[in-house]
Amino acid sequence: VLTYSANGVVLTVRRNDVTVASLAGNPNQQSLGGALDVMINNTTTGSNRNLTLENALLDASAANVRAALGGLTGEIHASLGGLATSDARSIREAMAERGRGAGEQAYGRGVSVWGSAVYGNGRGSAHDGIASFRNESSGYLVGAEKALSDNMHLGVALGENRSEMRSPRLRSTGRVQSEQIGVYGGVNLGAFDVRVGGSWADTNVRTDRTAQLNQFNNSLVGNYDGNVWQAYGELSWSRAVGGTVVEPYGAYSHVEYDADVAETGGDAALFGNVKQKSDLLTAGLRTRTILAGGEGRPRLSAVTHLAYTHDLNGDGPIFDAAFVDGPRFLIEGANPGDDVISTGLAFNIQATDRAAVEFGYTGLHKDEYRDNRIYGRFSVKF
Questions:
Q1: SS3 105
Q2: pLDDT tens digits, 199-249
Q3: Between the CA atoms of 150, 152, 156 and 159, what dihedral angle is there, to the nearest 10 degrees?
Q4: Are 31 and 134 in contact (CB under 8 A)?
Q5: CA atoms within 13 A on the CB side of 132
Q6: pLDDT score, position 2
C-alpha cells in the first residue's frame, strides 16, 4: 500500500488473504496448513521457536508452497504405524498355523519346536490424499509348544521383524524394527478347531525426511519407540473330500499400535503420537491336497488359502502432530490391512511323522495396495 504525504511516500507491505490451508491438495495438507496459518499469525508461537519456517512460507510463491506441503506433513510416521499394524499378521498367522492340518504333528503327546522366515515387498498407490510408497519386510520366528492331550496344545513364539518404507512424494524413508513375543493355544473338537493367541512387539522406529521450500531446507530425523499388541481367536470346520481337506474358517483379531514421535533437525521437526486400533474380521477357506507319498513314505501336499479381511474400526493410523510451540493437527496414514483379500499357495513335505517343512507364497491384494511374500517353515516333534 502506498501512502503519500507532503514530504514523501510510505510503502506498507501487508500479507494477502491467501492462506496456506487454501493451497492444500488433500486433507492431510489442509490440516497441516491450518496449523501453519495459526503459527504465521503468531497466535501460538513463543520464545522457544524461531520463525525460519514461517518466513519461508511468507516469502515463497503459492506454487512453491503447494509443492512443499507434502514434505512437511510427517505422513511417513502415520503410514509406518499402518504398516506395523498390518505386519502383525506374520506372527498371528504363524501361531494360528500350529495344529492346523499338520497331519500326525497336529496333536498328540510331546513337545514340538518350529521356526519360520519370511521376506517380501509391497507397493501402495496414492489414494484419498495418502501418498504412494514402497515397502520391504523380513523376519523370523521360533517357537515351542507342549501337547497337553491328544487334542490340545499350548505354545510360545519369539522373533524379530523389520519393515522399511520409501515415499519419494513425501521425501521420506522409514523403518520399523520389532522384537516379538507371543503365546497361543488350540483345541480340536471333532470336525471343529478353536485357536486363540496373543502377541506383543517392542518397536524401534527410524525416519529420515526432507522439508524444503526455496532456501529453507531441514534434514529431519526421527528415532523413537513404540509397541504393537494383538489378540485373536479363530474357529474352523474341516472335512475331507477325497484327497483334499477343505477348511472354511472365521477369525477375529484386535490389534493396537502406539508410538510417541520425536524428530530433530530443524524448525520443521514434529513431535506427537501415532495410534491405530484395528478390529479385524476375517472369513476364509483353506485346502490341503495330498499330491504324493504317504503310507510310511514322505508325503507332499499342496496348501491353498483365500480370505477377505474387514476392519470394523475402519480408521487408519493417525499422527496427532505439532511443531514446537505450534497447534496440534491430525495426519492420516496408509492402512494396508483393511478390506483386503489374502491369498496363499504352499507345498508341505511331511518327511516323517515327527518332521515337516513347508515353502510358500502369501499375498495381500486391494486396489491401493499389493504385498507379496515368500516364506519357509519347519517343525520337529520330540
A1: helix
A2: 999 999 999 999 999 899 999 999 999 999 999 999 999 999 888 999 999
A3: 80
A4: no
A5: 7
A6: 54
Measured between alpha carbons, how far apart are the two ends of the chain, in Å? Answer: 88
| Cell numbers linked to 5 | 504525504
Q: In Å, what is the CA distance from 83 to each residue of 88, 193, 273?
A: 9, 30, 16
Q: Which three cell numbers stand for residue 271?
A: 513431535
Amino acid at 119: Y
3-state secondary structure (DSSP) of residue 134: strand
Q: What is the distance, to the nearest Å, from the Cα of residue 213 to the centroid of all Cα atoms in its chain?
A: 30
How big is the CA angle at 157 (ends 155 and 159), to the nearest 5 degrees?
175
Total domains present in the chain: 1
Return the C-alpha cell found at 16: 494477502
Q: What percent of the chain has pLDDT over 70?
A: 91
CB atoms near residue 8 (< 10 Å): 7
**Among candidate residues 352, 349, 68, the one with its CA nearest the CA of residue 218:** 68
User: How far is it between the farthest Cα atoms of the chain?
Assistant: 111
The band of 16, judged by pLDDT with boundaries at 50, 70 and 90, is low
Residue 106: the pLDDT is 47
Range of the domain at 351: 2-381
DSSP assignments along 79-95, one per residue: HHHHHHHHHTHHHHHHH
Q: Outline where the chain has alpha helix (H).
A: 27-40, 52-59, 62-72, 75-87, 89-97
Decide: 231 and 197 in contact? Cβ < 8 Å.
yes
Cell numbers at residue 262, please? 520425536
The amino acid present at 174, given as its one-letter code, is G
Q: Each residue of 126-138: pLDDT tens digit?
A: 998 999 999 999 9
Query: CATH no. for residue 189?
Result: 2.40.128.130
The residues pairing with 371 across neighbouring beta strands, listed in sequence order, are 122, 364
Task: Give the CA angle between residues 163, 318, 199 to the nearest 5°.
Answer: 50
Specify the pTM. 0.89
pLDDT in tens, 328-339: 999 999 999 899
Alpha-carbon Rg of the chain, whole angstroms? 26
